[in-house]
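Is this the right way to post structure tokens for a design question? Let me know if I should format differently. Anyway, here goes:
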């Protein structure tokens, strides 16, 4: 199984990011990935990525700043309307790494 590190970002860094982290971890596991998830708010991204390597940032809230880490719009993991697209977008990034 391949491993990856994903930063999940929502407005407060708690509820929505935890939901996205759980669902995304489960969906990626089905695709052969062991995902380590960290939850954060937009204001704490800089602190979270300092000294750590993240393969991507799964965003529920908009993240306008660039951190040198690819971003995926992950709202679909909350709504359930486009979960497959979110997973496909994540896999496209992870497979390139």
């Amino acid at each position: 199984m391949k491993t990856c590190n994903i930063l999940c970002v929502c407005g407060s860094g708690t509820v929505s990011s935890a939901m996205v982290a759980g669902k995304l971890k489960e969906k990626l596991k089905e695709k052969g990935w062991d995902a380590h998830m960290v939850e954060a708010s937009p204001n704490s991204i800089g602190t979270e990525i300092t000294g750590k390597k993240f393969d991507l940032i799964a965003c529920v809230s908009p993240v306008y700043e660039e951190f040198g880490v690819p971003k995926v719009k992950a709202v679909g993991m909350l709504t359930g309307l486009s979960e497959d697209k979110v997973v496909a977008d994540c896999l496209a990034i992870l497979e390139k790494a």
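Format looks fine. Someone answered above. Worth noting: The chain has four helices and four strands. Residues 45 and 51 are 12 Å apart (CA to CA).
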